[in-house]
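Hi U.,

Before I forget, here's the chain from the pilot set. I'm dumping it here mostly so it's searchable later in email.
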Amino acid sequence: MNHEAFQQAGLRVCYKDATVSFPGGRTYPVTAVRSLRFENFLRPNQKKWFAYIEVEDMEQPVYTFAFSYGWVAEQFIPRVRMALEKAGALPFRTISSEHVESVDQHHIDPRKGSYTPTIVDAGTVIELQPIRKC
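Structure:
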């Protein structure tokens, strides 16, 4: 982070040009970002936490960022939000926050003769969108 740009995980927000560049080389105006989202729970059989950025692009509308630590994904989205707003994007607001339980495959309990789900992890999915003016 410096006075000219924000850069993390291959994403770059240039304040002067009001652009956001993604890994792979695609660049958009900051106003093309439609939503930011992160999940602070692990999915079954994965050891990564995910953050998502949705843009106005029919070919690749969602960019996924995987992190080795949950707190990094959790801090990544607010940093991207601040950088986009500093570059001229509309202010963002939280549109949804939901509690999610990650359930592993069901197993049969031989004593009860029934299937029992196993909750692997629980967490929250938080999504932000720009405040659009009517």
